[in-house]
Amino acid sequence: MKRRIIIICATVITTFSVTGSYLYLTSQQTSAPERTSSISKKDLPTSKPKDSNKHDKDKKIGSNKENFKLETGFGNKTLEVGRLTGRVSQESVNQNKNFEIKLANDKTAEAKKKGSSKPKNNIIPRKVTPNKQEPTEEAPIQDINFYDKERVMNPIDAQLESLDIAALEEKEPLVIGADIAKLQNLIATNQLSYKELAGIYLNRIKKHDQNGIMLNAITEINPTIIAEAEQLDNQNDPNKPALYGMPVVLKDNIGTITLPTSAGTVALKDWVMEKDAAIVDKLKTNGALILGKTNMSEWAAAMDDGLPNGYSGKKGLSKNPYSSELDPLGSSSGSATAATCDFAAIAIGTETNGSIILPAGAQSVVGFKPSQGLVSNEGIIPLSSRFDTPGPLTRTVTDAYLTTNVLMDEANQTPLSKDALKNKRIGLLSDDESNEETAILKKIKKDLTNAGATVIEGITLEELEQVDTDYITLLNADFKRDLNQFLQINRSPMSTLESIIAFNKTNPTRNMKFGQSELVASQNSTMTKQQADNVANELIHITQNELDSVLQNERLDAIVSAGVGGSVKFLAPIAGNPELTIPAGYDNESNQPKSLTFVSKRNTDIALLNMGYAYEQISKNRKNPILTNQ
Fold first, then answer.
1. Residue 415, burial from CB neighbour count under 10 angstroms (0-12, 13-18, 19+)
2. Beta strand 289-294 with 316-317: parallel, antiparallel or unpaired?
């Protein structure tokens, strides 16, 4: 009996011990905080404290915020991201807000909306440490973030069947990084044909964009580009324009009569417009071949504050080819990717505020935003027709110059001069990002000086807080009015912004995965056309005065801003000044591309391109991305 009691007591004690240990370990595992990204204080700029009440309010915007997730196919990692909008705020430029990135081994990560609901601009990707969470049972990555692969692959495969792939890949090294002049020379000397050139680009899109690291920059492919290129080979025109036979990709808000134009939205993903945009007519007239369309931040980033850069409901999330941890930035992100990865000879983007310049800097290509009004935006789905400006993204300044001449109907084909910076006064903008004396900034100053320029340091621009507020309010009004007019004139299947908002609600998981609060804000705008014109005129007057006074008082030929930051990149698009972004180097640890942006007086576009060319020739900073799984 005594022995039985001892055995029963021992059994009870063991049971309680095991159960208690299990409950303790379970509690520790579920309550343990997530490990945060590792970042040095140097990489984390100071910013104003966030309003927690505002943050809670922001999280409620959009009907599908309860299941607010973003998955990315970065190997076995996932990426948690904030958002950069094309509706740029000067405040966020100057504060240099962080683009939050967190990697994990699971296949999903909740994309959290951080900070103010005001549009964010200058967001710097941060180096991160993988989180050690276990994988979760979620849908495959491509089902969430990589939509309709066959839409791009079917026309590629159909056309590649007629080509010798081995021969194309043997000639591919001739094309990688080549500018227009080199490509035309290869064709003139019978080392390459226009048909082979188009085939090489199609094959690279197949290998690296739709497969491999799956950059997801291309949304549409011209199903007859090989036949069109072959026809040009057979014509053998002795008086070829500069862009003759050059394959071009267009941002998916630029209208074409042969390919759908959607601005990235599911509601318009199959809409083929009845005529080409004005710039497409110009490209075709000069012999260029339209290869396809590029992914973009949906509605030029005017969808929702939670929308990641480069994400569209039509195609999913595009990536930065220099690192899976880096933000592609801006709404013309797909065009920047196509240019830097040699998916086409030329890419065309559009900018309202920062949407060409920022992705060009983030992805190490040349981006040029012409002076307002010099290039027609007719036939381009608008964000604000008074500010929208198309422009090229290319691998060299010369290619941007040749393309801009076509877009502006400029007959002048005078070669750019590498002496264009001699005796020029270049003001180096002093802001939160460029104050630090980095190795790249030292090289920038040295290269400008070696090119013959006098560098004036410490240039500052006034912070115009009211411009921030009024500009965003104006864009809401412009977008509603201009989009409704555009859809109706071009007989779109969706005739109003209101109908698009309603359509998105029919399948929120796909149509408005990150919400549509900005669309709703625009729909709710009550600003009249006359009120909007008055506000716009005042904003243009203020920003022009600010830039003109700095350029004139310091006797500057151009202002230069290093890196993604710089309030000049917010003010210049409103004022209508031209902007030119050029690769300036790479971070030694993260491989993050660094850029330099020139801004000059309005309507001095050719002079600005000359100065940029002179800098490019002496600095020679750009390097091609390595398109392998990273």
1. exposed
2. unpaired
